[in-house]
Amino acid sequence: MKKFLLFTLTVILISCAPKSYISKTYNFNNMKRIGVLPFNTPTETFSGAENLFTKYLIKYGYTVVERAQIEQVLEEQDLTSKYLSPNVTRQIGKILGVDVLLVGEITSYLPEQKTMLYRVTKNTSSTPVYNTQITRNNEGEVKFRQTYGGQDFRHSKEVTPTEYTIYAQVGVVAKMLDVNTAEVIWVGDDTKEGISGLDALDSSAKGIIKSFDKQVKKAKERAL
Questions:
Q1: Who's near 201: CB < 8 A, 6+ residues apart?
Q2: Which domain holds residue 179?
Q3: What does the DSSP 8-state code read for residue 29?
Q4: How many domains does one find in the chain?
Q5: What is the CATH number of the domain that holds 38?
Q6: 96 in helix, strand or coil?
Q7: I need a surface site. Which of 14, 102, 103, 150 has the fewest CB within 10 A?
Q8: Is the pLDDT of residue 187 over 50?
């Protein structure tokens, strides 16, 4: 008879929909061109994270200004994307002809990692046990008699190691700013897991921009 005891790791994928909020007063029909600024990231792993958001903006039909043009303007005008005052956003908007700016930040990151799990197999075997009785009759003849005495149980344990991967987890927040006022007209955040940090970020970018597009379309319909 065999008994199996298996220690397993349950990985719960974070797959909740992105949380996003849109301005109820901004007229999104005026949003023609979008500028995407470099994202703030905690590690070089996510350098160029804004490119993923650009990819999905283009997929959903938005006109996006080349990031290199924005970086050139920031450098030439001695501006910074970390502190976007109304004056800074107006200058960017005027020079590049964009209506809104997308800014973002990687808010959390847990890299993928390996872990060892162990399968423990418990084995139980048994063999019958017999008792031997010795008797002597009146003639002095010796006789042997065996009787069943039960089972002799033996226990053994086998441990088998198995390597598992714990998925990477990435949290990101993105905002759309009006270039004239620096007002936040839309904000979305999401946390995803993936086989790598970039894979998780790509899933977040896809979900966030999909949510953005859905809300913008509804906002435009209401403005008609």
A1: 46, 49, 52, 106, 170, 172, 192, 194
A2: 5-112+167-223
A3: G
A4: 2
A5: 3.40.50.10610
A6: helix
A7: 150
A8: yes
